[in-house]
Structure formats: structure tokens, C-alpha cells
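Hi Y.,

Following your request, here is the sequence exactly as I used it, all 195 residues.
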Amino acid sequence: QLAFSNPHANGTFITLKSQGNVTITSSASPAIEASSLGAAGGTSDTTGNNGMAAVITLNAGLGATGTPGAAGGAAALYPGTVVAKIINCGTGSGGGGGRGPSGTEGATGGRGGGVLIIECFALLNFTGTINAKGAVGGTASSRGGGGGGGAGGTVVILYNQLTANTGTISVLGGNGSAGANGVGAGGGGGGGGGG
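Below is the corresponding structure, written out as C-alpha cells. Let me know if you'd prefer a different format.
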């Protein structure tokens, strides 16, 4: 399984690029785990963190043509010209923290899902599972409210040619947890990136 740790407070972007073929399959499920890599949930009686949005990748300009057997010229951008690739996506926002009678016993909200971008220049063979789900809200203690679930993340796969696509991608938001001793559940996760 390809998994990640230590996400940023506002969520983590993962970008995988290949100039050749890409095969996504694994005996482990999921093959790629990007769940709970989004924005952190709120602590007791606070809102969750907002997810980060938008990725802009600037590409280098074209190099000058070289004669046979000689190196090409240096890359240069033409004045006033920007060559770019824009992928609109966002990490899942964190769930709200639960509220307790004194505002201190609420459970922490679930973390949102991360962003996974895969770029395949050649053939894509996808038969595995990819997750970028939001986490379930924290369990309430004593008298507090349960934490809200984190919002789902985003998965983007760009490819040149598709060989097989029987894989599964899940970007579900996490559920909020019930409150303890009759106290209501925490607030739901904030809106985040969708699959």
C-alpha cells in the first residue's frame, strides 16, 4: 500500500508523475491511501480548518533547436506568454469540534481527505482502489458532543491512453459522532473538495 503521514494543518497535496506506463493495483486495499490527509478538525467547540484549494503548475518555455549532435538551446519563456496547466481541486475541510455544556468537553472533528493527482504520459491500467476519504468525528467523552466528520478529498488522474479501468475511487466524507449522555452530535464537516 502506498500511504502517507504527517499532513499539513490545511491538508496535503500528493502529485505522482510518470513519463511511462502506470499500473495501479495491489494485494492491499486500498492500493493508495490518501484518507485523513486533508484539513484538521476543530477541537472542542471550534470550527474545523479550511482545506486548501487549486493547484497551478507553470511549465518551462520551449528550448531552441539544436543541430544534429549538439545540445538544444536553453529554455525561455516568450514575453507576455504564460504556459500553464491548472487543475482545480481542494483538500477536504476538517469537521467541527463537538460542544459540551461548559464548552470544553466536545470531541475533535474528523480530518478531511487529501488531494491525489496522478499524471500518466503513456498507458494507464487501473484495477486497484484509491481512497481520499474524510475521517469520522471524534468520540465524545463524559458529557460532550461528538465531533463532526471531515469532508472528502479529491482524486484526479490524467492519462494519455486507458488500458483498463475497473478500479474504485472513494472520496466520501466522514460521519459525525454521537454525543455522550444525550448531548447532540458535533457539527458536520465543512465543504471540501469533491471527487
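The beta strands are 2-3, 13-18, 22-24, 32-33, 53-58, 84-90, 115-126, 129-131, 154-165, 168-170.

Thanks again,
Q.
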